[in-house]
Amino acid sequence: MKLYEQQELKVYNSLTGKKEVFTPLTEGYVGMYVCGPTVYNKVHLGNCRTFISFDLVFRYLRHLGYKVRYVRNITDAGHLENDADSGEDRIAKKARLEELEPMEVVQKYTVDFHTILERFNNLPPSIEPTATGHIIEQIEMIKILLEKGLAYEKNGSVYFDVLRYNQQENYGILSGRNLEDMIANTRELMAQSDKKNPQDFALWKKAEPQHIMRWPSPWSDGFPGWHLECTVMSSKYLGEQFDIHGGGMDLKFPHHECEIAQGQAAHGVAPVRYWLHANMLTLNGHKMAKSTGNNILPEEIFSGDNVNLSKGYAPSVARFFMMQANYRSVLDFSDAALQAAEKGFNRLMEALSILPNIPEAEHSSFSVQEWKQACYDALNDDFNSPGLIAKLFEAVKLIYAGDARKAQLTASDKAELDQAMKAFCFDILGLRPVDALTEGTQDRSRLAGVVELLISLRKRARDNRDFQVSDQIRDELQKIGIQLKDKKDSTEYVL
Ligand code: AMP
Ligand code: ZN
């Protein structure tokens, strides 16, 4: 029996605004698409938060036993400067400024993106398609939309006809916007535009003579609109309808709204069953963003080389900091919060290293089974990682109590706790034990071993009525601050 048959996962679906029981289209399989980065700059910690949030989703679905096909694209063309349909292509602009070929820019920042996510211990997606690798498919989809009368061509560019679409379907279904209100609130001057309506969006743009990223098409030498690539690549690799689509909250409108419209218009079916949106990482209360400069780069976190930081932090510490908040909450970055996360993470890792040393008892004073289900309950509640972490710290308390002989675990409970703690910390939260300040941890567990050896020698001395030796062991340990307390059947100590 697969774990997913025993656990009932609920996810918050942005489309309905409700937590819903997650049931994939095909039993045992999950198709998940997440909008990837536009590779024209180094990823900042805010971008990383979104990808780390979906790594948690990916890891948990896999842990439950699903076979997950996780598709995350690389946007290497078509994303214009101002997110709408005007301005320079972000990659082409960077290529101009850095005097590079656009594909050199793409390569450079794709490599940076992979390197950083690997340091955060993100698992790679199953497929990572690029927009430029799917120009033919994008042209084909535009043809379908034109045939269906839901797109129109003007001066070599092709636009999606939002008003026409809205007569049959609901444009605004995801973001809760109403097209009439949008039209009423539009101040945009339409004089120089080829669009029939400001709400229409580009599927294909004719390239200006200076625009270097261009491909031939039936309409012009040009390039695809930004929203189209995601519809084309998700349907190509996951089908016309698939289970989960994720991305940052800021992509809900217009990007994801347009994806829904394109998919529904082309295939006659809602493309996505569960829309998941990750919330923003802020710095000094404002969204971290490339454009405003209000951001921190991951390499600055690792080195400490940033005015907002007092020192460097290991990748798992930053990851643990993010996991302490639910992925749907805004999270504000601060040095103090990272320091607290470092302490918590080290304590968790230390508890894991102590666990094997605690003695095995006849009975347990803690129900590992109940605790483990409570951990799953947290994760089943829309990937509630802070809830899971609270439960992990209950186990940490128990481990320290066990170490101080104030709590008991049977051998099998101890093994189960060890296995479950490791699964939650490493397989699901994606922490890396090597990132802990383990030196102290190792010293501590060595010291515990030595103290236990001395306690057993002292017991033997007492059994032999050699009180001189037994008292000497107790007194010498007392001198270095380790106090032994004799209980009925055991001797307790605190390091
Ligand atoms: P971009 O490369 O700008 O398209 O962004 C890549 C991903 O990072 C998108 O899913 C964005 O929603 C997400 N993102 C951008 N800024 C932040 C932020 N401050 N916090 C969390 N996610 C962000
Ligand atoms: Zn997308």
Low-pLDDT stretches: none
Please, how many domains? 3
CATH architecture of the largest domain: 3-Layer(aba) Sandwich
Report helical residue fraction.
Answer: 40-55%
What does this protein structure show overall?
Helices cover about 45% and strands about 15% of the residues. The protein has 17 helices and 15 strands. Strands 4-3-9-10 form a 4-stranded parallel sheet, sandwiched between helices. A 4-stranded antiparallel sheet has the order 5-6-7-8. The protein has a 3-stranded mixed sheet with strand order 12-11-13. Strand 1 (about 10-15) and strand 2 (about 20) form a beta hairpin. Helix 8 crosses helix 9, helix 13 packs antiparallel against helix 14 and helix 13 packs parallel to helix 15 (about 410-430). It is elongated and about 105 Å long. The chain starts with a helix and ends with a strand. The structure holds adenosine monophosphate and zinc ion.
Write the layout of secondary structure elements.
Elements: H1 3-6, E1 10-13, E2 18-21, E3 29-34, H2 45-63, E4 67-72, H3 90-98, H4 102-119, H5 135-147, E5 151-154, E6 157-160, H6 162-168, H7 179-184, E7 201-206, E8 222-224, H8 226-238, E9 242-248, H9 252-267, E10 272-278, E11 281-283, E12 286-287, H10 298-303, H11 315-323, E13 331-333, H12 335-354, H13 368-380, H14 385-403, H15 411-428, H16 438-463, H17 467-479, E14 483-486, E15 491-494
Parallel strand pairs: 3-4, 3-9, 9-10, 11-13
Antiparallel strand pairs: 1-2, 5-6, 6-7, 7-8, 11-12, 14-15
Adenosine monophosphate binds at residues 35, 37-38, 46-47, 49-50, 247-248, 250-251, 280-281, 287-289.
